[in-house]
Amino acid sequence: MAASSLATQAQTSGESPPASPPKPPPATPQQVEVTGGRESDTDQRRLSTAAKIIIGREEIERFGDSSVSEVLKRLPGVTTQGPPGRGGPPRMRGLGAGYTQILIDGQRAPAGFSLDQLTPEQLERIEILRSPTAETGARAIGGTINIVTREGFRAKLNDLRLGFGLENGKFTPGLFWTHNNSDGNFIYNLTAAVFGPHNRSESQTLTIDEEPLTDAIVRSQTDRVVSDSSRVGANLNARLQWRGEGGDLLMLMPGVFATRGDTKSRFEVVEAAGSPVPLYDHGTTESLNSSATLRANGQWRKRLPGETRLELNGGAVVTQGASHSLRREFDAAGGLRRTEQTDGDSLERSLNLNGKVSKLLEGEHSFVGGWELENLRRDETRVTLSNGLRQLSDDFDDNLAASSLRVALYAQDEWTFNPNWSAHAGLRVETIGTRGDGADGTRPDNRSSVTTPLLHFLYKPDPKARDQVRISLTRSYKSPTLSNLIARPSISSRYPTGANTPNSPDRVGNPELKPELATGVDVAFERYLAEGGVLSANVFVRRISDYIRNVTQLETVAWIPGQQRYVSRPSNVGRASTAGIELEAKFRLDQMISEAPRVEVRSNLSLFRSRVDEVPGPDNRLDQQPGGTLNLGADYRFRGTPLTLGGNFNYTPAYRTQVSAEQALTAPAKRQFDMFALWVFNPGVQLRLNLSNLAPSDYVTGNVFAADALRERTITTTKTATNLRFGLELKL
User: What separation in angstroms does the CA of 529 have from each of 39, 48, 468, 534, 539?
Assistant: First the structure.
């Protein structure tokens, strides 16, 4: 270019151009990539006015996890209950079931739906919202986890993944398929999975009954249980999109989920010398469970004049479940002492219809208003036969039901005042009506209205820098589940007649439960690194009224006339509060230490405190909320090789929960170390190895009930094992 320019100048001036120098050898052509499309996960998080953490495909598939729960446990502030490697429902900020709102593609997950009905291969991304917004809903005292299934893009994709796991001698196969394609304005995505997890669990429970005044041991009993379970599951999801001109969209999202499980257990009872003769010596239990869920969601979006967009969403979910269990108890000589057979069916249906209007105003200013209508109904049938006879009298109906109707209106306004300040303000009004069948044949109605103002601020001290501060002032709530509203008693299988014990109570619902309400404040500081990565600190406080907790009490029960028994039922017990700090760091090591290897580091630390006002301390925390959780993870791709290695350490400290003045629960420290190795043969073939729960240890929990008449302690020890999983990933 320079030589040509000189020649042109010389010709213009009338002079002869100088002799051209010898041509250099042709340079290696440079490849220029033009990328477009959606913003990165980190950019979406940084630009959102309301706090949002986004986990994309790369991080979801990093470890090759076999369940969605295993993916979630490594995310900031998320804990899972139970022994290491067993997963479980996710809990944001350590709060129990119902405090964390679970959304599937932006719609509330149906009651009874387990995230393990999905597989990590079917996820496009995970969005974590620590504070509610008017649009996503206020049933999120702990926070919201939005699971977005694989989306269809115009790029063709046809992936097949074969995997199998091995744990405690049990084999778990899996087959997963993802397919994207397009035809003009029509884009479709299909994901399917077939899996068959098998596992063995071993546990033993030591029960000690003592006389409170003398500390004399009345009973010392050890129960040992070994269970072998197998499950077969299949699911199919589709996302069918038609995109018109100007952003118009019509999308259908049907899905089918089906599982069938079989569990066989063997148990035995060993009484210490001087203890009463046990009701049985040993026994077996056989359980069959099946569940099928049909989901059909749709979305229609139309762009109107004046930068206005209209959106309608609707869906229907039907979940049907069936269960059968047969328990046989034998004496020491092998003689049959008792049989207990339970057969149950449940049918849960939900319908929802939502409308939303959004308008882009002058400047960086947008308004959204909408309405939601949701109807849920659960019908449940359960019959228990003890030695062939009905366990409950005819006074208790076998067929019970519960229903709820929710109507919501909301409006939110998001605008940028200046380069430093942005705000997101919303108001949401919901009316909730619930009805549940009582044990006495009544059907009490509960109606409540919840008004939730929501305000989020984003402050950037220097708009050109990457530091920012978030402030959120919110109200949120937790509504009782339909199953908790059904007041049919479930009698202790260990003590079906006579007197039971506080740690083996009968269980019954409460149709008069009211929703919990919470007022919250969140303050966060975030620093986004120039080459990717983030450092953040978030402080939160929640104040809760009408807190719901399962309370065990000695009652005169109607299902066994004239008998006093211990009964556990959910109740509104009063006010509670929780607070905590959440720290997160994601970066590449050479960003912090010069000349360091390019190790990707992911770490988070959360610390929690809580108090239930009506329960005496110490340890009067919210239901089984740990003191915190820690994740330390890193991975490294070896240069010049197709190998990537990584690992993660997850830790939850031991804690004690004072449930009531008489009852306390204990949980041990939980440590889980996971590793993975990824070998990329070529862009279309890669092999992944996952080792989960390395260095397994026993998981020991406790339950103590101390009353004037009886003090009972139970200690349950559950064995855990390492899980080995191979996965072959093919791009066809």
Answer: 16, 17, 12, 6, 21
The answer to whether the Cα torsion of 681, 683, 685, 688 is positive or negative is positive
Query: Quick one: which of 322, 321, 324, 320 has its CA closest to 385?
Result: 324
The whole-angstrom separation of Cα 218 and Cα 374 is: 52
Q: Is residue 667 part of a domain?
A: yes
How much is the pLDDT for 654?
96
Q: Which long-range contacts (CB under 8 A, 24 or more apart) does 78-81 make?
A: 78/128, 78/145, 78/629, 79/626, 79/629, 79/652, 81/624
Q: Is 618 helix (H, G, I), strand (E, B) or coil?
A: coil
Q: What pLDDT sits at residue 192?
A: 94
Residue 456's φ and ψ, nearest 5 degrees, are -125, 135
Taking the alpha carbons at both ends of the chain, their separation in whole angstroms is 45
- Alpha carbons within 13 angstroms on the beta-carbon side of residue 114 total 16
DSSP states along 129-168: ESS-BTTTBS--SSEEEEEEEPPP-SS-EEEEEEEEEEET
Q: Which residues lie below 8 Å from residue 467, measured CB to CB, with a gap of 6+?
A: 460, 461, 525, 526, 527, 528
Contact status, residue 70 vs residue 87, Cβ threshold 8 Å:
yes
Return the pLDDT at 87.
66
Instruction: Decide if 17 is inside a domain.
Output: no
- C-alpha 249/C-alpha 301 separation (Å) is 5
CATH of the domain at 470: 2.40.170.20
Could you list the residue range(s) of the whole structural domain that residue 382 is in?
A: 41-731
Cα distance between residue 641 and residue 633, in whole Å: 21
Element (H, E) at 471: strand 467-478
Selection from 460, 600, 475 nearest residue 545 by Cα: 475
pLDDT at 403: 87
Contacts of 207 (CB under 8 A, 6+ apart): 219, 220, 221, 222, 223, 501, 503, 712, 713, 714
CA distances from 135 to 110, 254, 273, 375, 678 (A): 18, 23, 63, 18, 39
Task: Report whether 278 contacts 267 (CB < 8 A).
Answer: no
Assigned domain for 88 exists: yes
Show the beta-strand stretches assigned E in 362-420: 365-386, 389-390, 399-416
Strands 563-588 and 506-507: parallel
Question: Within a domain: residue 8?
Answer: no
User: What is this structure's pTM?
Assistant: 0.83
Distance of CA 96 to the CA centre of its chain: 11
Cα gap 490→344, rounded to integer Å: 12
Task: Give the whole-angstrom CA distance, residue 482 versus residue 488.
Answer: 12
Contact 659, 82 (CB under 8 A): no
Please tell me the total count of domains within the chain. Answer: 1
Task: List, in order, residues 6 or more apart from 567 with CB less than 8 Å away.
Answer: 489, 505, 506, 507, 508, 552, 553, 554, 555, 557
Q: Find, among 126, 121, 127, 131, the residue nearest to 161 by Cα.
A: 121
| Model pLDDT, residue 23 | 45
CA angle 141, 146, 147 (to 5 degrees): 145
Local mean pLDDT, 10-residue blocks, the chain (732 residues) = 38 39 42 48 82 87 83 88 80 86 84 75 89 89 90 75 84 90 89 90 93 88 94 92 87 93 95 81 96 93 91 93 96 93 93 93 87 91 89 69 90 90 92 72 74 92 91 91 78 84 88 89 93 92 94 86 88 94 95 91 96 93 92 94 95 94 93 95 91 93 89 94 90 82
**How many whole angstroms separate alpha carbon 115 and alpha carbon 129?**
18
Residues 6 or more apart whose CB falls under 8 angstroms from that of 535 comprise 526, 527, 529, 584, 585, 586, 587
* Tally of CB atoms within 10 A around 247: 10
